[in-house]
Amino acid sequence: MTGAAGTTGPATTGSGSTGPAATDTAGPGAARTVTARTDAAGPGRTAAALQSALAAENAAIYGYGVAGAQLGTAARERALRDWTEHEVARDQLQAMLTSLGVKPVAAQPAYRLPFPVHGTRAAISLAGYLENQVAAAYLGIVALDDSRLRTWSAGQAQACALRATTWLGRTAAFPGLASGTGPATARPSASP
Amino acid sequence: MRADLRRRSVLAAAMMAVPLVAAGCKGVGALGTPPEPGPDVAMLRGAIGTEQALIARYRSAMAGSPALAGTLSPLLAQHREHLARLTSMLIEPPGRSASPQATPSPASTAAPGTGPAATLAALEAAESDAARSLAGRLALAPPALAQLMASIAASEASHALLLRTHEAGG
Predict the structure, then answer these.
(1) Which of A28, A93, A113, B29 has a 20 to 30 A CA-CA distance from B13?
(2) Could you give the ipTM of this predicted complex?
(3) Does the beta-carbon distance from A166 to B36 stay under 8 Å?
């Protein structure tokens, strides 16, 4: 299961297998929800979702370093605070994986950025982009059955949305999910 | 009069039968009485009701404080997106209204107060309540609904943050 999570850069944070496949055929009788079928839940699935989140955190930590270098003093301090929060989350994910007997995915020496980052505006856009990618990865954990992990990762996704709003000055309708009214998916959008 | 009496008792018997069917009498249920919706349906209806109540609050706030339209309309638009996505997950049997009745939450009965600052503060509180309520019900939801609820809760928490920022900024 190690290595299944994104090792190629910030663009690969979602775990396709944990995304909700919206398929259901309701009978004529009862109202139902469109639900994803829960895969045979197991430690492998849990580890894969945690690894995806860890890979996203690793990418965000790298990305905040890039963004911070482009920011003025006040914004750089905020980037440092957010960077630290991502490091704390990374440590928690590593500890969870280790306790499952799984080797945490390692950070890459460098990550491909989604767009060139020169100047304050691009740096702020990068921070917003990274937060959405990390939120998407946490929603992959929300899809697991473990209620404690669900609550924790939902809190992490919320923290990502709050940081993104602070950077961008605007909110998103579906942080970490693709927009629109189609079937929900945990896969992050390809473009920022 | 006698016929009328008999009709009444038939109606009463029919009403008495409903709980029995709901309790899982499969023999009668097979005759066509819809089974009780599952707990996830109740959860989804609750989330839909909350969004409808929030949309009503925003509309009323914008009517009362037109100067806030620039701040509030993007947030209102996102609540409409929430509602559409939630509604799309609910499959209603034919003949039933696709959108359930709005059930105003206790929080939404709070008076909006007077002036833009009070309006923003009331909306911020409603957003925080909605986010907390969704996050608190995540554990029991099926995976896809849990992800959607978590995302909407995150959106609403960030709405609250944005509203707080506008309050502070005047």
Answers:
(1) A28
(2) 0.76
(3) no
